[in-house]
Design goal:
The structure holds 2 protein chains of 2 kinds. By secondary structure, chain A is α/β, with parallel strands linked by helices. Chain A contains 12 helices and 7 strands. At the A-B interface, helix 2, strand 4, helix 4, helix 5 and strand 7 of A face helix 2, helix 3, helix 4, helix 5 and strand 3 of B.
Chain lengths: ~375, ~350
């Protein structure tokens, strides 16, 4: 019995080799890692550029001393322009802000970005970025404005001495980006391609008439399913481990690896069994695979949007993939899912899909004779 | 062009229900996007402040509400975990005498990090804002950028359908041996390729056009540029499908190629659009990817800013270059095969 199982394993392994399964997985691994290392890690947005028109030369200077604490992000300098037209032109993009100091009252000029709160924030930010150079060196314009008024008392004169927010998280921006995108890629790879991997393999065997042969030789149906499932699971686990270690680094990678492998295993089993069932139950798998690839994009997009940007979509909690994705992501952020309900649901789903796959195989064998 | 042959191609598709579904899917997504108006997309772009219940003075709370969305938490633990949550960019705000005390998790993007760092100072200076004369010009169109992005992603996916369809169609014909039958039929390789391009192109273009009709509110002068954009992009997509079919031997390899191309087509343009300044060498380099030009063009149409001349020119160049490349490769292959036959 064991010997038979190993023969099956060997045959499936050879089948995967001949379908260049491993080569393609390695290719995906390289592609993903390159993308993460060279593109995604440096992902960032910029603070709003501030343009200033100051013909009288009351002196504007960027307050560059306020830098973010963690990575020495400095603010971009205030850019001086020479004419009003230039100023109007520079701040016409709904993003940049212009300050006009040529009138008696300083004027902030900008095009709305469509969201009121952000517009208010932009204005307040721009106002904080100009300072005057007086006899006593650079002083904030706010002070000059206060002095010029008759009743300076209404503002809080004492500006907070220590600017900068306290940091309470453990990750830097780069590490967060790495964890986030690795989780996303692994999820997509397992959900979209893991499904098709086993399905395509089985479909090929079905085409070659292997199932018909299995119907007449004394091989257990369970062994037939398990050998394929085991190989796919193993290769998915190796893929997950390599993707994690390459992109998170050895130390961080090893720290999250057990939790990640747990989630990857669950997802891999679910998707491979679903693929097995679809390949055996659907008469025309080829067209189905095309449809599936497209479906995968539309199914995973809301999941990614809700999971990554914190968008509030009410119905998303009924989306089973959402919970799988969250578990995967939380594993990467050292916050593994410990809810027994989740694991019970996963176990039930795996058992159900396994029974379905067995049933499908039995029907297929009966049909083939 | 042999119209009869084309008729057979279309007949083959008509029997293929799933293939029609594939082309209909982006349209369904477009409809869903249009109907899902409860999807509050601005919430992700706004600065988010987390505060403690009954901690800040009412004045501070209303000031924060003017500058972002405010969520009150019952306990300090809840607030801290909300700030730490990697998928949101919540800034934690506590009272500090008359001022504010701010904390953040440290993994934010620059804009949130700087906002958090400056927040106490901005709050202290709040009364000064009345001394400024603020001129807020309305923007040309509604700038719901997240919705625009989703619409454009749906449309680029719709265009991509031509590629997926062509690749899968040809690969499965390859596996079924139809290509061998074609060798003895009076059908030249170029006729076959043209038919396939035309079928994928028509499907992709129609699907995109209908999606555009559902999702985009366009004025009359914008229609011609949109049509040109759709036609050029759908042609490139169909051609890409032919490339994939040529280089993949079996279905599985085809799927992997499609997956890679799909990621390359969809993900980078979104990032480029959001992150690279619109003038500069890096931005110009992104035009090497045909989908970037499509993406920028569609975004321009949606936001109603600028003309599409550059994008259309770039796409036309892409069409010409890739088509020539395909022709060259085909001729090269034929020559090699002829040589082999000759040697035999």
């Amino acid at each position: 019995m064991t010997g038979m199982f190993f023969t099956l394993l060997k045959k499936d392994f050879r089948l995967m080799l001949s379908a260049r399964f491993f080569l393609l997985a390695a290719g995906s691994l390289v592609l993903y890692s390159c993308y993460i290392h060279f593109v995604y890690v440096s992902l960032d947005d910029k603070m709003y550029p501030v343009y200033c028109y100051d013909p009288a030369g009351i002196g504007t200077q960027a307050i560059n001393s306020i830098t973010a604490q963690d990575s020495g992000r400095t603010l971009p300098p205030v850019i001086n322009v020479n004419t009003k037209e230039e100023l109007a032109d520079a701040c016409s993009d709904g993003y940049s802000i212009g300050i006009d100091l040529s009138e008696k009252a300083p004027r902030i000029r900008m095009v709305s970005c469509g969201i009121d709160t952000i517009d208010h924030l932009r204005a307040a930010y721009a106002a904080s970025r100009i300072s005057t150079i007086g006899a006593g060196g650079p002083a904030p314009l706010r002070k000059a404005l206060l002095d010029s008024e008759d009743s300076p008392a209404e503002a809080d004169q004492a500006a907070p001495s220590n600017t900068g927010a306290a940091l309470i998280g453990k990750d830097s921006k780069e590490m967060k980006n790495r964890r986030e995108i690795t989780a996303e890629f692994l999820f997509f790879e397992l959900a979209a391609v893991g499904f098709l991997g086993l399905a395509a393999m089985l479909f090929k065997e079905k085409d070659m008439g292997v199932i018909r042969i299995h119907a007449v030789i004394p091989v257990q149906r369970n062994a037939f399913i398990l050998s394929k499932l085991g190989l796919i699971l193993l290769s998915d686990l190796v893929f997950s481990a390599m993707l994690t270690l390459i992109n998170l680094g050895a130390a961080e990678g090893l720290a999250v690896l057990p939790a990640v492998l747990m989630q990857a295993g669950i997802l891999s089993l679910l998707m491979a069994l679903a693929g097995f069932f679809c390949a055996i139950a659907l008469p025309d798998f080829k067209q189905f695979s095309l449809l599936y690839l497209v479906l995968a994009v539309f199914i995973t997009t809301p999941v990614f949007l809700a999971g990554q940007t914190g968008l509030e979509i009410g119905w998303i909690k009924y989306h089973p993939m959402y919970h799988l994705f969250l578990a995967m992501k939380n594993a990467y952020f050292r916050n593994p899912n410990t809810s027994p309900v989740y694991y019970a649901a996963c176990a039930c789903a795996v058992a159900l899909l396994y029974l379905l796959a067995g049933w499908g195989l039995r029907c297929e064998m009966k049909r083939e004779g | 062009m042999n119209w009869n042959a084309l008729k057979y191609q279309l007949k083959a598709i008509r029997r293929d229900k799933l293939c029609i579904l594939t082309f209909l899917l982006p349209i369904a997504a477009g409809l869903a996007l249009n109907l899902l108006s409860d999807l509050n997309l601005t919430s992700a772009a706004e600065p988010a402040f987390g505060i403690l219940q009954n901690d800040l003075a009412p004045e501070a709370v209303s000031w924060l509400q003017v500058h972002g969305s405010v969520t009150a938490y019952d306990t300090m633990e809840d607030l801290e975990s909300a700030v730490r949550e990697p998928s949101t960019q919540t800034i934690g705000v506590l009272s500090d005498g008359p001022g504010l005390q701010v904390f953040r998790s440290g993994d934010e993007l620059t804009r949130t990090a700087v906002t958090a760092d400056l927040l106490p100072q901005l709050y202290a200076d709040r009364s000064l804002m009345s001394r400024y004369e603020i001129i807020l010009l309305p923007s040309g169109s509604d700038n719901n950028i997240m919705k625009h992005l989703l619409i454009v992603i749906t449309m680029v996916t719709a265009m991509f359908m031509g590629c997926t369809f062509n690749a899968m169609n040809i690969i499965s014909e390859k596996e079924d041996g139809i290509l061998c039958i074609n060798e003895i039929l009076p059908l030249t390789k170029s006729q076959y390729a043209l038919q396939k391009i035309l079928v994928g192109f028509t499907g992709g273009a129609l699907s995109t056009a209908v999606t555009a009709l559902i999702c985009m509110r366009l004025s009359i002068p914008q229609i011609v540029p949109l049509l040109l954009l759709v036609i050029l992009s759908a042609f490139i997509a169909a051609l890409t499908g032919l490339f994939i079919a040529r280089f993949s031997e079996n279905l599985m390899a085809g799927i992997v190629f499609i997956k890679i191309i799909m990621i390359l087509f969809l993900a980078p343009p979104v990032l480029f659009y959001l992150l690279l300044p619109a003038d500069g060498i890096p931005h110009a380099l992104t035009y090497l990817l045909p989908s970037s030009a499509t993406f920028y063009g569609l975004m321009k149409l949606l936001t109603g800013s600028g003309s599409l001349g550059k994008e259309l020119a770039v796409l036309a160049v892409h069409c010409a270059v890739w088509f020539l490349l395909y022709v060259c490769i085909s001729i090269g292959f034929r020559n090699v095969r002829a040589c082999c036959r000759h040697q035999h």
